[in-house]
Design a protein that fits this description.
472 residues; alpha/beta; Aspartate Aminotransferase, domain 1; Aspartate Aminotransferase, domain 2; 2 domains; seven-stranded mixed sheet; four-stranded antiparallel sheet; 15 helices; transferase
């Protein structure tokens, strides 16, 4: 496929513009109300009609067709109803995986090595192993387990068996069998809504209110001044300040820090960026203090930022110890390379299914399509085109396009408005002109389109943004 028309070749009948038949969404409201009797539907934006969604456009039940630059919260890689993925879904291998879903830990199929191999073709540099999970939050929690097992094994000896005291105390949730250990994460981070991942999340209170939490440390993530090229020295000092906080937490926290968890770009927390120097500093500190580095690529991975994995831009030496993934991969888990991150005994990193081979097959197919069509370069090219147009709009509407960020990060772009009320109004107004778009943090807008979002789609988006802003 030609990079210049990859979307058109997947979707020759994709519309050229959004279709807005009604803004009242009466049918959608009825569907959501009916759904609410059996399922909590209070967070629903609208009821979608996926049978009519195509490429970069999502349909609703009222007959509207929106250009979707949110893409299921960053998790649609190749557009709706992608024909290549439909062919994969129809394969005999997929049918077996769905109908006879295996318990991979005990009864792996004779095709599992091949399935893993397809995923590993697009693994982050330096990573040659994986463990599969069910969601982004699950991937992170599985990574925490791997880190804690590794940390304790280093203390007692990798192949050394557990002591009688450990075996007895763990049954009462007491040390030494249940040791006091911590994962260090960052303020404004989002890593999931389960118990342990919730303890590392720090973006919005609603994500974790009433949930019991581990008493784990939070460092400060750099808060940069924009534009970056005019604030180099200030932002360098910000890196140094934040790294000093991490160093201090390693030295003073009440329990040992076994791992550091960080997003290459804090996404849900506001699209907060940091430099390669900051991340190399984290890498150096984990080595210095005998901890592991987990790179959370759930939202940034799989080509979203113009490289396959966002942290690869930093060329970290040595590479991160674990890299978690989900969203655009349609699967979940973590990559790693050190054999000693495999728990020292069987049945430790384990559950009934150990992931989902159907989703793993789909992930391999997604990776194949990305490589075949050079879609990472497409995203990078289109991102440069889009960012330049957004810069011009920022000059024209500085009140509503503040702190534009994501330059040279493909279409992984965000900006801020003056308040959360203004942001929410903007999102609603964009729906009325046929754009499905999302927010992050309290006052920011984030773009998360597919990897087949091209210049013609960017033009539609820019026209819609200007149409909305011109009325404010």
């Amino acid at each position: 496929m030609s990079n210049q028309s990859v979307s058109a070749k997947y979707f020759p009948n994709e519309p050229q513009q959004p279709i807005v038949k009604t803004t009242s969404l009466n049918v959608s409201k009825q569907e959501i109300e009916a759904l609410g009797k059996v399922f909590d539907s209070r967070s629903a934006y609208f009821a979608a009609d996926y049978s009519k969604s195509i490429g970069n456009y999502i349909a609703d039940v009222d007959g509207n067709l929106y250009l979707d630059v949110y893409a299921q919260i960053a998790s649609i890689p190749l557009g709706y109803n992608n024909p290549a993925l439909i062919e994969t879904a129809k394969s005999d291998k997929m049918i077996r995986a769905i109908v006879d879903r295996p318990a991979l830990g005990n009864f792996p199929g004779n095709d599992l090595k091949e399935i893993c191999g397809e995923i590993l073709k697009v693994a982050p540099k330096g990573q040659d192993k994986l463990w599969s999970g069910l969601s982004g939050a699950d991937a992170n929690e599985l990574a925490f387990k791997a880190v804690f097992f590794w940390y304790q094994a280093q203390k007692r000896g990798y192949k050394t068996d557990f002591s009688r005291e450990e075996v007895e105390s763990v049954m009462h949730n007491q040390a030494p069998g249940s040791p006091e250990l911590a994962i260090l994460s960052f303020e404004r981070a989002f890593h999931g809504r389960l118990f342990a991942s919730g303890s590392t999340t720090c973006s919005k209170p609603i994500h974790k209110l009433d949930l019991p939490a581990f008493k784990w440390p939070k460092a400060e993530f750099p808060s940069y001044k924009y534009p970056l090229d005019e604030n180099v020295e200030a932002n360098k000092k910000e890196d140094e300040r934040c790294l000093a906080i991490v160093e201090d937490l390693f030295k003073t926290w009440s329990i040992p820090i076994a791992g550091v968890l960080v997003e290459p770009i804090q996404s849900e927390g506001g699209d907060n960026h940091a430099s390669g120097e900051f991340f190399q500093g984290l890498r150096d500190l984990t080595i210095k203090h005998g901890a592991l580095l987990i790179m959370d690529e759930v939202q940034t991975g799989v080509g979203a930022t113009g490289v396959m994995w966002a942290h690869e831009r930093f060329n970290l030496q040595p590479p991160p110890d674990l890299v978690t993934f989900s969203k655009k991969f349609q699967s979940a888990g973590y990559f790693f390379h050190d054999p000693e991150i495999v728990p020292n005994f069987a049945y430790r990193q384990f559950n009934t299914w150990c992931g989902d081979p159907a989703r793993m097959i789909l992930a391999g197919s997604i990776g194949e399509q990305i490589l075949k069509n050079d879609l990472v370069k497409v995203a990078d090219r289109v991102g440069k085109y889009l960012y330049e147009k957004l810069e011009k709009l920022q000059s024209k509407y500085p009140k509503y396009l503040k702190d534009l960020r994501g330059k040279d990060r493909a279409t992984f772009i965000a900006w801020s408005l003056e308040s959360s009320e203004a942001r929410n109004q903007f999102l609603n107004d964009m729906k009325k002109v046929g754009i499905n778009i999302g927010g992050c943090a309290e006052d920011s807008v984030r773009l998360r389109p597919t990897l087949i979002f091209e210049e013609n789609h960017a033009d539609v988006l820019i026209e819609a943004i200007e149409k909305v802003l011109s009325k404010y």
